[in-house]
Amino acid sequence: MRSLHGIAQEGFRYFGASALALGIDTAILAGLVYLAGVHYLVAAPLGFAGGLALVYLLSVRWVFAERRLADRRVEFAIFAFIGLVGMGINELILYIGVDRFALNPVQAKIPSAALVFCFNFATRKLVLFTRY
């Protein structure tokens, strides 16, 4: 039971960290699209990268209690790779939302954020932040 409680606490903290990262991500996306005229499929990865940097820092300092890898460069590379897979999911959902359902990019970001959050938390917890 204690383990389940710990995972729930980490999930709650990861939600907070992800919310902050999503704010950075969405601000960059909206700023680039609406202020700079950058295409949304180009702007989205740039926003995602800003969010990735913040969520990694918060994940290793505040969210997760355990770390599997001693080499922090390898840990970040795997963390980023998981984020890239999440970004691919993000891009697909944005494309479907904007090009198929005529949503604006920020509206399409809502279902994307929910799905990518679940994918990233579960994958990162299992791969990087759980002892063997």
Main attributes of the structure:
mainly alpha, 83% helix, elongated
Structure, explained:
The chain is an all-alpha fold. It has one domain. Helices cover 83% and strands 0% of the residues. The protein has 4 helices and no strands. The protein has helices spanning 2-35, 40-63, 72-100, 105-127. The radius of gyration is 15 Å and the shape is elongated. The model has no long low-confidence stretch (mean pLDDT 92).
Produce the secondary structure layout.
Blueprint lengths: L1 H34 L4 H24 L8 H29 L4 H23 L5
Helical content class = over 70%
Order of helices and strands: HHHH
Q: Span from first to last CA?
A: 18 Å
Oligomer: single chain
What is the total tally of β strands? 0
If helices are DSSP runs of H or I spanning 4 or more residues, what is the number of helices?
A: 4
* Beta-strand residue fraction: under 5%
Integer-rounded radius of gyration: 15 Å
Structural class: mainly alpha
Largest sheet: none
- Whole-number average pLDDT? 92
Which parts are unreliable, with pLDDT below 50 for 5 consecutive residues or more? none
Sum up the overall morphology in one term: elongated
Number of domains: 1
